[in-house]
């Protein structure tokens, strides 16, 4: 199967073929999602929550994402590897944005994602000029949770036009795609119709060009199940059962049995 590139995703939009994206931060999930035909693996700063145990992506470090990006890139062939620019790595200056973007690319990413609209256009333009494809991220932007006042749907009512204008500005600055998070479905559909580049929704309805979920939510491992999440498996129960049975077997003296034992 041919490697997915940013241009492939634009072709998918033209063909009306939905783009599939999942987060991934480690070798096994990356190889499984590759085999499953997922198009884009997002090494998201959600790793701060899903891997490192923080309650916000504000605490995710650039170095964490660099390390996880390497793991994912080494473990998949076909998917496009998209890595998040962490909180604080692009807000200070255009120079810092490019430097951190370069580090993500050298770790194995084929593109980077940053949050925000018109306020980050200089960064988007500079990254694209440096040869780094950029994905935008609008609507609820978790790195700004303290500013936004919690996990809330964005772009409602009179704020809709501003979100659409941000999306158009990101496209004009050279973004190859835009993630729409927690946006009313009619607005997400309007953005999707307006843009030539694909939109990838999370909590933004079926009218986007593709969808993304955090993999531990998708697989029922996290137990995080807000309205916009569907758990397609019950990994939490499965893993729980395995760990309980392992513990019981060890305590009962049933594991290891002779077949798991070296006699000499
Ligand atoms: O970090 C992440 O998982 C994300 C997705 C929710 C889009 O940015
Ligand atoms: Na993110």
TrEMBL record:
Pfam families registered for this protein in UniProt: Pantoate_transf (PF02548)
Catalytic activity entry: (6R)-5,10-methylene-5,6,7,8-tetrahydrofolate + 3-methyl-2-oxobutanoate + H2O = 2-dehydropantoate + (6S)-5,6,7,8-tetrahydrofolate
Locations listed in the record: Cytoplasm
Top EC class for this record: transferase
Keyword terms of this UniProt record: Cytoplasm, Magnesium, Metal-binding, Pantothenate biosynthesis, Transferase
GO molecular function: 3-methyl-2-oxobutanoate hydroxymethyltransferase activity
Biochemical pathway: Cofactor biosynthesis; (R)-pantothenate biosynthesis; (R)-pantoate from 3-methyl-2-oxobutanoate: step 1/2
SUPFAM superfamilies assigned: Phosphoenolpyruvate/pyruvate domain
Cofactor, free-text remark: Binds 1 Mg(2+) ion per subunit.
Binding annotation for Mg(2+): 45, 84, 115
Cofactor(s) listed in the protein's UniProt record: Mg(2+)
EC identifiers of the protein: 2.1.2.11
Quaternary data: Homodecamer; pentamer of dimers.
Family assignment from sequence similarity: Belongs to the PanB family.
Protein name: 3-methyl-2-oxobutanoate hydroxymethyltransferase
Organism this protein belongs to: Dermabacter vaginalis
């Amino acid at each position: 199967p041919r490697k997915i590139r940013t241009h492939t995703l634009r072709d998918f939009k033209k063909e009306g073929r939905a783009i599939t994206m999942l987060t991934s931060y480690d070798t096994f999930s990356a190889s499984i999602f590759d085999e499953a035909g997922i198009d884009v693996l997002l090494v998201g700063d959600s790793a701060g929550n899903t891997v490192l145990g923080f309650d916000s992506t504000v605490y995710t470090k650039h170095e964490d994402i660099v390390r996880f990006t390497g793991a994912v890139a080494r473990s998949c062939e076909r998917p496009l590897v998209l890595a998040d620019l962490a909180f604080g790595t692009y807000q200070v200056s255009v120079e810092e944005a490019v430097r951190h973007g370069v580090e993500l690319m050298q770790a194995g990413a084929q593109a980077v994602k940053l949050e925000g609209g018109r306020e980050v256009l200089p960064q988007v333009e500079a990254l694209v000029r440096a040869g780094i494809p950029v994905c935008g991220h609008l609507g609820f932007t978790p790195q700004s949770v303290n500013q936004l006042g919690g996990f809330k749907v964005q772009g409602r009512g009179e704020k809709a036009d501003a979100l659409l204008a941000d999306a158009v500005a990101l496209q004009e600055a050279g973004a190859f795609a835009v993630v729409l998070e927690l946006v009313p479905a009619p607005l997400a559909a309007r953005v999707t119709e307006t843009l030539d580049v694909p939109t990838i929704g999370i909590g933004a309805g079926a009218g986007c060009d593709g969808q993304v979920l955090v993999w531990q939510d998708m697989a029922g491992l996290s137990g995080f199940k807000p309205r916009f999440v569907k758990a397609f498996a019950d990994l939490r129960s499965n893993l729980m059962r395995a760990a309980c049975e392992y513990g019981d077997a060890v305590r009962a003296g049933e594991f290891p049995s002779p077949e798991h034992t070296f006699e000499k």
